[in-house]
Design goal:
2 copies of one chain form a homodimer. Chain A is α/β, with parallel strands linked by helices. Chain A has helices spanning 6-13, 17-24, 32-44, 51-58, 74-87, 103-113, 133-140, 164-177, 193-207, 225-236, 250-262, 296-312, and strands spanning 63-68, 93-98, 120-123, 145-148, 158-161, 183-187, 218-220, 244-247, 272-276, 290-293, 322-325, 329-331. Chains A and B meet through helix 4, helix 5, strand 2 and helix 11 of A and helix 4, helix 5, strand 2 and helix 11 of B. Chain A binds a DNA duplex (16 and 16 nucleotides) through helix 2 and helix 4.
DNA sequence: TTGTAAGCGTTATCAG
DNA sequence: CTGATAACGCTTACAA
């Protein structure tokens, strides 16, 4: 419980605290001799500056807030790894929060962060988030906030996404080309942009084909796995079941896999399946799962670079209002082939 | 960029800052009328207290540091979710760091945290960590540090593990019972305790059987996936290959799956496989993978509860020097059955 | 080149 | 019940 602070070092060295501070910060106005002495003692006593005193003084916390809707998901884990890779080079720290796809939780987290605990926020909104009032608050406080994947489309800031429309379109075309005539689309929520864009791609692909289309083919899923399971089974059992499924998020595809197995249908013979997913072992599944995988790590890196450029450079680089698209990759595997 | 602080509120209300502070903290020595007025304005102006000023004053940050060796791993993600579930009830925040299985990185992270940025640390050490000098520093500073899964055995603190020995033993017995005569053990590192304990269980199971045993059956793996792949193939191709594999960590099992597929061997006919893993979709693999899965979420919760009890209670509950074991579950699936 | 003093936003202590 | 003041540890004008 030692409290080695600048004052203590100053006493030991018989210098003024300010001198010690300057020496530690390698100020040009301190002699090399003094610097050496200070550094030596600091090292010996393992002095660590109090970050909160610094933050209070500088109005900077060297901390970034990261908010994700789900932690047990490779995509988000990879993004955070990407963010951390960059931020730690600048000595920044990461406060990470899981909103659990819950807007109320999200609002609570945001309100914590409003007090200046973080210098910036990078987030993916929950699937329930429709209003962005709480997010605008953040900007009003002058805290930069940027989005990735699940973006708040109308907010004037930089948003990173992948080519959701194109990917949804390509995946659907791929299913059609492989003989699917009745393709369902699994949607987590209409609120979130990625859902909308991926859906739009799907719809356009269907419309551009000779397939009919029915509203019911777009399946609104819930957050509850069991409910989804019942829902899926309910449309898998009847004779007029789908022969293709495009899932907009990994979680739903997993449930679909299970539902299909339970109904004794076969992938890909009876039903072909594609999902957006960043899982590492899609090729080990039975059958190997066709995925649209996002450049998660790179998204994280770019988010962080943008923020670091804005926060740490002397000539501050502004955060523009724009959407940056980093393309996904359609990895074709057996689950979608004849 | 408004700076709504206590002083500002005090001016507006024509009160002293200390009164405002007390009112906001619902002090008993403030009249209800005053409280109401203060609260009202605070709400109206969306006042948020500056956490750093508070931390500086109170020598408490309401922040916990979490260090894990790997982020893209369900086990660690689940543990963090468990930690967060508890800590957020107490208004605590989580700084999360990934050591990437690198001791040097781990040391760097620890040194950041030494300045009082966090009130406590909960961590799983990297597979390279043999010396615990840097970890002892933390304790010397009076910062509580507890461990889970990859523990620093000799440090006087609470460590959460699962029944690694028993699980290793049971899994090996299960393989033997199912006809394996030559079982390899995949080890990430001899340094880490879980490796040692799981290995000890394996060894005792072999010794207690009529099987011979050779040193070479314990495979020292590296951090590099490609190297491991080559290594695995090198012992899979020969005629005297193993007919069973027990992997002490998920990552190695995945590589083994790939290696086995590439060598055209069949699981479980040619080789049976079991791994420690918390993946959600083990049953969707081809073949479904037998796993020893840990109560990750519960481990996280217990870690957090221990810390919260120590940090937030008026009669501080000490962190004892002991090991708490929460049992894992052997989930038998096709990969290990005849 | 070094020392003095003020202040970042809060809260605890002491007075009134 | 409320107000003035000091202090947490650090940095930065300003002074020497």
């Amino acid at each position: 419980m030692t409290k080695i602070n600048i004052k203590y070092l100053a006493e030991k060295l018989k210098m003024a605290p300010s001198t010690v501070s300057r020496a530690l910060n390698d100020s040009y106005e301190i002699s090399e001799a003094t610097k050496a002495k200070v550094m030596a003692l600091a090292k010996e006593l393992n002095y660590q500056p109090n970050p909160y005193a610094r933050s209070l003084r500088a109005h900077k916390s060297r901390t970034i807030g990261v908010i994700i809707p789900e932690r047990i998901n490779n995509f988000f884990a990879q993004v955070i790894d990407g963010i951390e890779e960059i931020t730690q080079q600048y000595g920044y720290h990461l406060l990470v929060y899981n909103s659990h796809e819950d807007v109320e939780q999200e609002k609570k987290i945001i309100s914590y962060l409003l007090g200046g605990r973080v210098d910036a926020i990078v987030m993916s909104v929950s699937s329930q988030t429709s209003s962005t009032e709480h997010l605008e608050q953040v900007q009003k406080q002058g805290i930069p906030i940027i989005f990735f994947d699940r973006i708040a489309q109308d907010m004037p800031t930089t948003k990173f996404i992948t080519n959701d429309y194109q990917s949804g379109f390509d995946a659907t075309r791929h299913l059609i080309k492989n003989g699917c005539r009745k393709i369902y689309f699994l949607l987590l929520s209409k609120e979130i942009t990625i859902g909308k864009e991926r859906l739009r791609g799907y719809l356009d692909a269907i419309k551009g084909s000779d397939l009919p289309f029915k509203e019911e083919w777009v399946i609104q899923c819930s957050q509850d796995e069991k409910q989804n399971m019942e829902l899926f089974k309910s449309f898998l059992y009847p004779m007029d079941r789908p022969d293709g499924i495009l899932s907009s998020v990994e979680k739903l595809a997993i449930t679909a896999y299970h539902a299909i197995k339970q109904t004794r249908l076969s992938i890909p013979k009876d039903i072909k399946l594609i999902t957006f997913s960043n899982m590492k072992i899609a090729d080990l599944l039975n059958p190997p799962l066709t995925t649209i995988s996002q450049p998660a790590h790179e998204i994280g890196r770019q988010c962080a670079k943008l923020l670091m450029n804005n926060l740490t450079k002397t000539k501050q680089i502004p955060i523009e209002d724009k959407v940056i698209t980093i393309p996904s990759v359609l990895q074709i595997r057996s689950s979608s082939e004849p």
